[in-house]
Design a protein that fits this description.
45% helix, 3 helices, 106 residues
């Protein structure tokens, strides 16, 4: 449900831009992330974090040509969540490998 709502939110913003003649202006997706296992906002598995990253990047690049930047929130966890690409011990999460794969595909 949340995933679908967010897609609709993006579509609404792009529709408003088009209605105002701004359909060609660049859009940035900034501070994207899904917290691993725990945060103040919930969490997902490490595998889901990587899958959601890949899916959202593909959706943005294939469906919305206006999206010119896709910025992951942080490489390291924060005090209020496990948003990063690394485990606390410094080992790489699946999302790190997904991030690397996406960067190499550009």
């Amino acid at each position: 449900m949340k995933k679908v709502k967010k897609v609709l939110d993006v579509k609404k913003v792009l529709d408003v831009m088009a209605q105002n003649g701004e359909q060609d202006k660049p859009v940035w997706f900034a501070e994207l992330a899904w917290a691993k296992e725990w945060s103040n906002w919930g969490g997902v598995t490490a595998e889901n974090q990587a899958d959601y990253m890949k899916t959202s990047f593909s959706m943005a690049s294939q469906s919305w040509p206006q999206v010119k930047a896709y910025v992951w929130f942080t490489s390291r966890d924060t005090e209020d969540g496990n948003w990063g690409l690394y485990e606390p011990d410094g080992s790489k999460r699946p999302s790190w490998y997904t991030f690397q794969e996406l960067v190499q595909s550009l």
